[in-house]
Amino acid sequence: MTEPFLRSRERGPDDKVADYPPLPVPLVVPIYDNHTHLEFADGDNPLDFKEQLDRASSVGVRGVVQVGTDLVTSRWSAEVASHEPRVLAAVALHPNEAPELEKNGLLDEHLAGIAELAARPRVRAIGETGLDFFRTGEDGRDAQVRAFEAHIAIAKEHDLALQIHDRDAHRDVLRVLRRVGAPERTVFHCFSGDAEFAKEIAGAGWFLSFAGTVTFKNAGALREALEAIPRANILIETDAPYLTPAPWRGRPNSSYLLPHTLRFMAEHLGTDVSMLAAQISSNTEAVYGKWDDNAIDAPLETGR
After folding, report:
1. pLDDT per residue over 126-148, tens digit each?
2. Distances in whole angstroms, Cα of residue 46 to Cα of each of 7, 219, 252
3. How far is the CA of 57 from the CAs of 21, 259, 261, 272, 286, in angstroms?
4. Which of 276, 295, 302 is nearest to 27 (CA)?
5. How buried is 61 (Cβ within 10 angstroms: 0-12 exposed, 13-18 middle, 19+ buried)?
6. Is the pLDDT of residue 7 over 60?
7. By the 8 A CB rule, do 277 and 29 touch?
8. Which of 98, 153, 245, 246 is deepest in the core (most CB within 10 A)?
9. Alpha-carbon distance 8 to 5, whole Å?
10. CB count, 10 Å around CB of 84?
11. Residue 303: pLDDT band with limits 50, 70, 90
12. What phi, psi does 19 have (nearest 5°)?
């Protein structure tokens, strides 16, 4: 399937596909990638989305949640999920999109587009949405909060999970969730807080999704957070094409590298890899449902 924002690839001697790490040893018990971005077809992530999914399937990654960050990528996510049994979709306007949309008078129109996509059966989450005070200054925060609250309302109206992007905004995210009421299934994507914040989230019945960052040498606080929460609250993700886990940090990321993060987490927790995989898979299905709950349309041709 070709889209205007998905740039075509020309393979050659400098093909970036060669930069991808080799396949890890396959998992015995399969898992799901709770958050990935398959739409990058060049630059950071030159692999076609079907190539990525095939590699993931070969190592025990059963399915992925493909996450939109604006109206265009959200539409693409919903469309791919409708045709591809290994994909469910999350749709949203990333918090860093909200200030510019508000400035141009387009925020309500784009939120209406997200609400329309939310009705599609293989769209199972609203996200990634939330607050990002790292990239957005004070002048853009009101727009982020307004967009966040609107996304929460859409998730609750359609009984969908909520995937939260939280960067340098922990307390403000919690304040919004408590003021308007969080959806029943709420996920802190790429969790970045400490153990106390993790316990607060888990205590509310929400989920914490750990990415390749948990494997980084300087991520001691993340590993303490992982230790501090019940395993029933743990999810796992790549956030590909970003945050490639050790030992491949600095190389392109993809869902097929998720076993590295899982094995690291299991070793750190002192538990069996297959037991942790089974727990996380059960948690993931509790949040999003089963990947085969809805029939798919005829498969897509990639057009490449």
Report:
1. 999 999 998 888 889 999 999 99
2. 9, 28, 9
3. 16, 11, 16, 21, 21
4. 276
5. buried
6. no
7. yes
8. 98
9. 9
10. 24
11. very low
12. -80, -15
Q: Output the pLDDT for position 137.
A: 82
Q: What pLDDT, on the 0 to 100 scale, is given for residue 41?
A: 53
The residue whose two tokens read 């293989």 is: 122
Question: For position 142, what pLDDT does the model report?
Answer: 96
Indicate if the pLDDT at residue 230 is higher than 90: yes
Asked if pLDDT for residue 4 goes beyond 60, the answer is no
Confidence band, pLDDT 50/70/90 cuts, at residue 39: confident
Task: DSSP for the chain, please give it.
Answer: ---TTS------TT-GGGGSPPPPPPPSS-EEEEEE-TT--STT--S-HHHHHHHHHHTTEEEEEEE-SSHHHHHHHHHHHHH-TTEEEEE---GGGHHHHHHTT-HHHHHHHHHHHTTSTTEEEEEEEEEETTTS-GGGHHHHHHHHHHHHHHHHHTT-EEEEEEES-HHHHHHHHHHH---SSEEETT----HHHHHHHHHTT-EEEE-GGGGSTT-HHHHHHHHHS-GGGEEE---TTS-PPTTSTTSPP-GGGHHHHHHHHHHHHT--HHHHHHHHHHHHHHHH--TTSS---SPPP---
| Contact present, 183 and 148 (Cβ < 8 Å) | no
CA atoms within 13 A on the CB side of 131: 20
What is the per-residue pLDDT for 14? Answer: 42
Tell me if 75 sits within 8 A of 68, measured CB to CB: yes
User: How far from 13 is each of 16, 18, 42, 202, 253, CA to CA, in Å?
Assistant: 9, 9, 15, 48, 21
Neighbours of 99 (CB within 10 A): 20
Lowest mean pLDDT among 16-25, 99-108, 270-279: 16-25
What does residue 75 show for φ and ψ, rounded to 5 degrees?
-65, -40
Query: Phi/psi of residue 273, each to 5°?
Result: -60, -45
